[in-house]
Specification:
About 45% of the residues lie in helices and about 20% in strands. It is built from three helices and three strands, in the order βααβαβ.
């Protein structure tokens, strides 16, 4: 009769702190799909397909994360969206 020994290993997990922020775009009843799409292409450098998908998500879900990155990179992009009359914030 043999016995199997179970060994429990201590594993060190290093988590990288992420300082990533997000631009969240909110739905409104004022702006057209075309305006939202063009604004996302201009301000966030989206492809036309990506901008269209985000506009649809915003329309049906009420909000959508449209860009992720460092705060300093997102601030001017969010300002462009706000200047275009869209509702957005950095979270």
């Amino acid at each position: 009769m043999s016995t199997k020994e179970k060994i429990q290993e201590d594993v060190s997990v290093v988590e990288k702190e992420s300082n990533q922020n997000e631009i969240v775009l909110y739905n409104d009843d004022v702006n057209t799909f075309d305006h939202v799409i063009n604004s996302l292409i201009f301000a966030c450098e989206h492809t036309p397909e990506q901008a269209e998908q985000c506009s649809i998500i915003v329309h049906y879900k009420g909000k959508c994360t449209v860009k992720t990155g460092d705060f300093d990179e997102l601030k001017p992009r969010c300002s462009m969206l706000l200047e275009a009359g869209l509702s957005a914030e950095i979270v």
